[in-house]
Design brief:
CATH class of one domain: Mainly Alpha
Structural class: mainly alpha
Helix content: 40-55%
Order of helices and strands: HHHHHEEHHHHHH
Number of strands: 2
CATH superfamily of one domain: ProQ/FinO domain
Strand content: under 5%
Length: 263
């Protein structure tokens, strides 16, 4: 699954931003061997169409990468029919969409943007998941450090942002490989533990008859954190009620839900 369009797999992952030249990397101190400066590897060439895109839309193809809106390929062809050839533009956008910095922006949960740099729509959960896993795999190949905790944290954020249940999210991403499924299992397990703690706090608060400030003071908690936790617990409760109503094909107001006595 890709975010935009496909292109050859020989794409460099970390080509310098269009319009810039990356300085040659110097050897660190104490290394056994260093290449002389005149033998340093030359910067990789930027695809000419990417350079044109950078010149036209620096907000979207410059130093900072942002997820592109769906249909941007057709938009560019319509806006610049004399400038871009269809196949060359497809290859260039494929290079851009598979670059590490672009995948990182998708994995971070940024919304899709139009060519002027304005957000227009969220990225689909399956595309966010694909980007998280691809960034994780590329980084893990380059280090002995276990990067699963970072990937798991990003998956948790992505799952919460999607608002989908476990079943719906898994149906969306359709991942079968062991690593991905293991990370998703860990993420959902942690989310379940968090939800249980939030629900326990909500029930304790409702039974206390206290205000948020009084309850927070009684348990040595931050009132703002108590408020946020209660809100998330109630949203989860409402979502469960909606799911129950849908499953039973009942109107939402007929679905069973606990009375909320909190102020």
């Amino acid at each position: 699954m890709t975010d935009t369009v496909s292109a050859p797999e020989s794409t460099p992952e970390s080509a310098p931003a269009p319009g810039r030249q990356r300085p040659a990397r110097q050897g660190g101190r104490g290394r056994a061997s260093r290449k002389p400066q005149n033998q340093a590897r030359a910067p990789r060439a930027v695809h000419p169409v990417l350079q044109q895109l950078f010149d036209l839309y620096p907000k979207m193809f410059g130093a900072q990468f942002l997820p592109l809106k769906l249909g941007v390929f057709q938009d560019l062809l319509a806006l610049h029919p004399e400038l871009f050839k269809r196949e060359e533009l497809k290859v260039a956008l494929g290079l851009h969409a598979r670059s590490m910095r672009y995948l990182e922006s998708v994995a971070a949960g940024h919304p899709r943007h139009d060519l002027s740099g304005e957000p227009v729509e969220p990225v689909a959960p399956e595309h966010v998941h694909h980007a998280i896993m691809e960034v994780f795999r590329r980084r893990q190949m380059r280090t002995d450090q276990d990067l699963r905790p970072y990937a798991r944290a990003q998956l948790i954020e992505a799952i919460e942002a999607s608002g989908l249940s476990r079943e719906d999210f898994l149906l969306c991403v359709r991942q079968q490989d062991e690593v991905s499924m293991a990370l998703l299992d860990e993420a959902f397990s942690e989310l379940s533990e968090r939800a249980a703690k939030r629900e326990a706090l909500r029930k304790t608060f409702d039974a206390s008859g206290k205000t948020v400030a009084e309850f927070a003071d009684m348990y040595g908690m931050n009132p703002a954190e108590v408020t946020e936790t209660l809100e998330r617990a109630r949203l989860a409760q409402a979502a469960q009620a909606a799911a129950a109503a849908k499953a039973l094909e009942l109107p939402l107001e007929a679905a069973p839900v606990e009375a909320n006595t909190a102020p």
